[in-house]
């Protein structure tokens, strides 16, 4: 049973309400963590789709009842709060009850391709597909882009669960195998300073996807903004689109609106 814990964030632009929704672990057994998957859901009465965000970093941000910290969304806050003339999307932040992978290592990225994590993504998609009765999109940023590619690679059936996929500032290790028929958007800052999320690798990823995907495939280069602090984690860096939120938001909303 889905547990709706709290209704918060009253009066944020065109967002009507926000909820923390706990989704039970879809797997049972000794080897699977028992904790629920915590999500933050923000609805928009005019939304045309639901956008589920797979975050980067460790993937675990401590979301809990009474703690819907919307600023965790970074650039996606612009969408979640309905900025830039108002978002036309419902928004879901998917937290992990355990750490998935630090930015500075490759060895732990495999956690993001393990069954428990990918099945949790499925359960979140099913929950909000049923709840909103709207097309579902997945967006993965940084390490979250590796989660997104792993989800799509897990089974050809997975791509049938969503309308489209957005890879944002993605890890250079992400890849897709096989054929696809999805709307796929790749966004990357041209001066991304994080050594694990190279702009040129994003362009190569795009060229590969164009050959594999029967659906629409598009690449958007984010430019300008500001860059300060630690290159991979700081909210002031190009990797987090600091000062370029408008470009990011408009690109995402435009792409989804046109599909």
Describe the model.
By secondary structure, this protein is of the alpha/beta class. The chain has a single domain, classed as Alpha/Beta hydrolase fold, catalytic domain (Rossmann fold), CATH 3.40.50.1820. The protein contains five helices and nine strands. Strands 1-2-3-5-4-6-7-8-9 form a nine-stranded mixed sheet, sandwiched between helices. β4, α1 and β5 form a beta-alpha-beta unit. α2 packs across α3. The longest helix is centred in the middle third of the chain and has 18 residues. The chain is globular, with a radius of gyration of 17 Å. The two termini are 32 Å apart. The N terminus is likely disordered.
Give a brief outline of the structure.
The chain is an alpha/beta fold. It has 5 helices and 9 strands; from the N terminus they run ββββαβαβαββαβα.
Output the helix-strand order.
EEEEHEHEHEEHEH
Q: Strand arrangement, largest sheet?
A: 1-2-3-5-4-6-7-8-9
Shape: globular
Whole-number mean pLDDT: 84
CATH domain class name = Alpha Beta
CATH superfamily: Alpha/Beta hydrolase fold, catalytic domain
CATH T-level topology = Rossmann fold
Radius of gyration (Å): 17 Å
**Count of DSSP H/I helices:** 5
Strand content: 15-25%
SS class: alpha/beta
Describe the sheet with the most strands: 9 strands, mixed
Q: Tell me the CATH architecture.
A: 3-Layer(aba) Sandwich
User: How many strands in all?
Assistant: 9
Number of domain modules = 1
* Subunit organisation of the chains: single chain
Distance between the termini: 32 Å
Poorly predicted runs of 5 or more residues? 1-17
Helical content band = 10-25%
């Amino acid at each position: 049973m889905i547990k709706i814990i709290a209704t918060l964030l009253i009066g944020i632009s065109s967002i009507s309400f926000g909820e923390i929704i706990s989704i039970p672990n879809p797997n049972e057994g000794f080897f699977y963590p028992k904790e629920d998957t915590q999500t933050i859901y923000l609805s928009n009465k005019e939304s045309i789709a639901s956008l589920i965000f797979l975050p980067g970093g460790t993937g675990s941000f401590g979301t809990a009842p009474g703690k819907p910290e919307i600023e965790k969304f970074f650039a996606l806050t612009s969408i979640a709060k309905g900025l830039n003339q108002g978002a036309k999307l419902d928004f879901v932040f998917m937290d992990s009850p355990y750490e998935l992978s630090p930015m500075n290592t490759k060895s732990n990225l495999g956690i993001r391709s393990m069954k428990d994590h990918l099945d949790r993504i499925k359960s979140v998609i099913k929950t909000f597909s049923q709840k909103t009765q709207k097309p579902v999109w997945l967006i993965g940023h940084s390490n979250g882009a590796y989660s997104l590619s792993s989800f799509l690679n897990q089974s050809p059936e997975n791509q049938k669960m969503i309308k489209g996929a957005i890879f944002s500032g993605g890890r250079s290790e992400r890849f897709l195998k096989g054929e696809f028929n999805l709307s796929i958007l790749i966004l990357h800052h041209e001066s991304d300073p994080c050594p694990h999320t190279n702009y040129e690798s994003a362009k190569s990823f795009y060229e590969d996807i164009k050959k594999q995907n029967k659906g629409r495939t598009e690449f958007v280069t984010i430019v300008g903004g500001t860059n300060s602090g630690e290159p991979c984690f700081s909210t002031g860096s190009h990797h987090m689109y600091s000062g370029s939120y408008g470009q990011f938001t408009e690109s995402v909303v435009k792409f989804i609106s046109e599909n």
